[in-house]
Amino acid sequence: MLKRFSDPDRLSRRRFLTATAATAATAGGVIAAPATADTLADVPPRGPGDDLGAYSPRSPYVQIARIPEAAPGQRNVDPSAAINSKSPLDKFVGTITPTDLHYERSHSGVPNLDPSKHRVLVHGMVKQPLVLTLEDLRAMPSISRIAFLECTGNGWENWKSAPDTVTVQNTHGLVSTHEWTGVPLSFLIDLVGVDRASTWMLAEGDDGAAVARSIPLTDEIIAEGILAYGQNGEPLRPAHGFPVRLFLPGFEGNLNIKWLRRLKFGDQPFMTRWETARYTQLRPDGKARQFQLKQDVNSVITAPSGMMRIKPGSNRITGLAWSGHGRITRVEVSADGGATWAVAALTGPVLPKAQARFQHDWVWDGRPTKIVSRSTDEQGNVQPDRASFIAQVGTNALFHYSAQQTWGIDEAGHVRNVLA
Amino acid sequence: MLKRFSDPDRLSRRRFLTATAATAATAGGVIAAPATADTLADVPPRGPGDDLGAYSPRSPYVQIARIPEAAPGQRNVDPSAAINSKSPLDKFVGTITPTDLHYERSHSGVPNLDPSKHRVLVHGMVKQPLVLTLEDLRAMPSISRIAFLECTGNGWENWKSAPDTVTVQNTHGLVSTHEWTGVPLSFLIDLVGVDRASTWMLAEGDDGAAVARSIPLTDEIIAEGILAYGQNGEPLRPAHGFPVRLFLPGFEGNLNIKWLRRLKFGDQPFMTRWETARYTQLRPDGKARQFQLKQDVNSVITAPSGMMRIKPGSNRITGLAWSGHGRITRVEVSADGGATWAVAALTGPVLPKAQARFQHDWVWDGRPTKIVSRSTDEQGNVQPDRASFIAQVGTNALFHYSAQQTWGIDEAGHVRNVLA
């Protein structure tokens, strides 16, 4: 006899079997009905289907679009400002972000660049300055890596104050995970013969705002940096940097320069206005911190989340966790506002600097409560609660908010954003 | 001093630096030009970009569509026949297949199913037969896994004979890799209380052809099977089984029943016509083999590949390798028709039962030759050459062709399919 059937209790069979025999009210989301016959009644008849095509479109029954912050027709090309189009985390499953739903972030719209005319200038403290075409880059050795990308402004809504009507797309929709493919930065460094005294690299974009950042040449960045031309198996999309962008796993989004047109090597930061003004962190003492570049350990419950409604009984809590410091090792979930915690299951691929999916089965007794998640990474970093985060960092700054996200649930099952 | 710069020779810096100083002719694909100034000349001017949107479209400069076998307007709804739309492997990078370019395969077109009306009947040798809604399935514990799916007919063009003008999309375009998300089959088995004497499971689709297959309840299938409702982070697309399909990592595509409407448990195979007639393997002795279900170790060079043209000098050979028996451990590449072999680099995530990307830098001397790849999996299976494969299996059968793929290169650099 094969020992091939697993333990029913571990898989909470009892709860689901109870649910199947019970009413929707006590069964929460689970309303499976006992079968009364060997055939299905009341299902649509079968018939010939649609033609196969050059692409596989989505089902007309699937509504999954992002919500751009700039309404159609409205433009925002002020380089000092920005427009976002956030990922609908509440509609995703697994860990990979659908390619056309990766969050978009731009200071001057989306350039439509001709790859045959695009060039990347590599110069500064190098033996052999080069002008690279996309063809050059694609002929070089390449690597692929599944990793998250996160805007450093992700989550700031809840730092100071936020309405209770925001969704998880509003609060955390500026993080996504893709497979990125391109040329290792270390290869390019060797190719042009970067001077060993060089400690910084300027990366400049070909967008109208000419976003440019100074990047420290740390071991981590040299070992993991990629000049990326591919995402999820295909060429970059224009909103994500076509034909080539910089990808630095774990580092704030704006360093991952899109539409890359120049890399200059030097021995000190280049002090662009993006790092002297915009992307600095105002501290409680009024002084500004520069070059805070790493995205910290983070997590959020994506369901149930803002503006959803749940029923009493069996409910599944699920969400995403990520850290710029490496692999997620543990996610805990509290269903009583942080008084007690349970370890959630990690249900998918758990890769370094990639989003991990967590899940925890929970029976809601119908009384008002708060749910919250807390993640830990392989370096032992633990996601702080909001009060501890503010006590340490204050509320003057705009970026790198990574405190725990709390969702309140009222007696009617309405889920709302809570600043706690 | 940081020891942070890697060994130039390991990254073949010398070859590329030579290339940058040389002509395109001697540099092959690498034509990087030395920079003569600190600014870029002859590049288009910067300007405001397009609006951000609800989706991120592809660049108009990217042509990546599949080639459906049935031309627009032509229909093929004969259940005994089939239509394909193959993945353009030559246009991909990395290991993940773009969601809308996963290969399509159907016996009666693509059903457009309403998820609110769809049901899955689970019955047979079970304690508690159930009728499941999609809401039920989404409320159950879920797992996510990155794995390949392959049509058992993939590659058959080259088994008997094939024109020298086919591309890698024609020869190997019926395999793709996605992240699949859904309910573990083991959970459902426990939920309905499958009789421990049950050894087979019938899976039936809701398509017009009513494709149905008997699946043996092996430890591997129970441990790894998924009732999948998600692919690459989003709901399944109609062509891939929306709203729910069976996913059995490593097993031939037609077992992974799309548009799943029924699972019936029994103690013997159900002998549908799909397994008594269509998906059987005619042996050299004229007898037919049933239930050959596992996809064997395989690989193909995707570039340079059929109908491409290369230049003498530095060229990069890249391709994909996969095995239904587990993880790819080694890919070798020969540039002299199999006389000598070099170990290729595996450049991306290498996951069990997922496609792995390999890469090998090669300098072509301009003389006619043949290039071929050979993969090995963690169980020690080695991909056979075509002659050995045919000597063992003959040429009567149609499915599970997994022999090495050879591409010929003539003195002009034209790459052509070769039956060798």
TrEMBL record, chains A, B:
<dbReference type="InterPro" id="IPR014756">
    <property type="entry name" value="Ig_E-set"/>
</dbReference>
<protein>
    <submittedName>
        <fullName>Sulfite dehydrogenase</fullName>
        <ecNumber>1.8.2.1</ecNumber>
    </submittedName>
</protein>
<dbReference type="Pfam" id="PF03404">
    <property type="entry name" value="Mo-co_dimer"/>
</dbReference>
<dbReference type="InterPro" id="IPR030835">
    <property type="entry name" value="Sulfite_DH_SoxC"/>
</dbReference>
<keyword id="KW-0479">Metal-binding</keyword>
<keyword id="KW-0732">Signal</keyword>
<dbReference type="Pfam" id="PF00174">
    <property type="entry name" value="Oxidored_molyb"/>
</dbReference>
<dbReference type="GO" id="GO:0050310">
    <property type="term" value="F:sulfite dehydrogenase activity"/>
</dbReference>
<keyword id="KW-0560">Oxidoreductase</keyword>
<keyword id="KW-0500">Molybdenum</keyword>
<dbReference type="InterPro" id="IPR036374">
    <property type="entry name" value="OxRdtase_Mopterin-bd_sf"/>
</dbReference>
<feature type="domain" description="Oxidoreductase molybdopterin-binding">
    <location>
        <begin position="107"/>
        <end position="274"/>
    </location>
</feature>
<dbReference type="InterPro" id="IPR005066">
    <property type="entry name" value="MoCF_OxRdtse_dimer"/>
</dbReference>
<feature type="domain" description="Moybdenum cofactor oxidoreductase dimerisation">
    <location>
        <begin position="293"/>
        <end position="388"/>
    </location>
</feature>
<feature type="signal peptide">
    <location>
        <begin position="1"/>
        <end position="32"/>
    </location>
</feature>
<dbReference type="InterPro" id="IPR000572">
    <property type="entry name" value="OxRdtase_Mopterin-bd_dom"/>
</dbReference>
<dbReference type="InterPro" id="IPR006311">
    <property type="entry name" value="TAT_signal"/>
</dbReference>
<dbReference type="InterPro" id="IPR008335">
    <property type="entry name" value="Mopterin_OxRdtase_euk"/>
</dbReference>
